[in-house]
Amino acid sequence: MGILYIIATPIGNLSDITARALEILKEVDLVVCEDTRQTIKLLNHYQIKKPLVSYFQHSKLSKIEYIAEQLRRGKNAALVTDAGTPGISDPGGMLVNKLTGEQANKEKIRIVPIPGPCAAVAALSVSGFPTDKFLFMGFPPHKKGREKYFKEIAAARRTIVFYESTHRILKALEQLAALIPQRQIVVAREITKMFETIYRGTAKQILEILNSDKNNLKGEFVVVVNKI
Ligand code: SAM
């Protein structure tokens, strides 16, 4: 039985990958990824050539079966996603879940983590908020359940971290401003990339900065909310 390595990859800066991750990417028989175009950029940068198998949330069972079959044949595979640690708010977790299901467990597929970047952890690390305990809330729902999600944040008695897209970052901060106007917040934008910016203040203060220049709204965002 082969090994499936779960490899964390950069969240922007291509140098943010561990030596061990590169060694394993060079050794494995195939790389399971999300968007092949994204993974090819990383592999090309390190001059690694590997067969790629794309996997996403709605992949057919036959795709999972194909990957399981490769492992059964003794091939080693690496699972990467578009950015960061596979399984953290991306389709990586689904694959591991399917491969470790009841049937798969009997086959004892070995799954090995190769740790590295994660946007949520990077944002927490610069937040200055207590991180001995924190609550990771993934992405807020777009519509149904969104209000409840933010009420849960407002009521939580610990540091909270969540992901938000460029399309809804203003809406998220407006919701936080209405529910917890005094609470300190950190918004980490484009971590490790050219326009990396860390905004600190209340939701209202950060909204003012983001609204002052439409370039501030571009890119990827992590929001960290200080505990009560
Ligand atoms: N698995 C990834 C990880 O370990 O962080 C997260 C994948 S999730 C589909 C993508 C979200 O992570 C983005 O919408 C954004 O909220 C956050 N994110 C990823 N890269 C980021 C970056 N460089 N700067 C800020 N946020 C980022």
UniProtKB/TrEMBL annotation:
Enzyme Commission identifier(s): 2.1.1.198
Domain of life assignment: Bacteria
Chief site of localization: cytoplasm
Domain Tetrapyrrole methylase, first and last residues per copy: 4-206
NAD found in the keyword field: no
One GO cellular component term: cytoplasm
Cellular localization per UniProt: Cytoplasm
CDD domains per UniProt: RsmI (cd11648)
Keywords attached to this entry: Cytoplasm, Methyltransferase, rRNA processing, S-adenosyl-L-methionine, Transferase
Entry-linked InterPro entries: 4pyrrol_Mease, 4pyrrol_Methylase_sf, 4pyrrole_Mease_sub1, 4pyrrole_Mease_sub2, rRNA_ssu_MeTfrase_I
Molecular-function GO term, any one: rRNA (cytosine-2'-O-)-methyltransferase activity
Top EC group: transferase
Catalysed reaction equations from the record: cytidine(1402) in 16S rRNA + S-adenosyl-L-methionine = 2'-O-methylcytidine(1402) in 16S rRNA + S-adenosyl-L-homocysteine + H(+)
Biological role stated in the UniProt entry: Catalyzes the 2'-O-methylation of the ribose of cytidine 1402 (C1402) in 16S rRNA.
The family this protein is said to belong to: Belongs to the methyltransferase superfamily. RsmI family.
Protein name, entry field: Ribosomal RNA small subunit methyltransferase I
Organism from which the protein derives: Candidatus Portnoybacteria bacterium CG02_land_8_20_14_3_00_45_8
High-level lineage: Bacteria, Candidatus Portnoyibacteriota
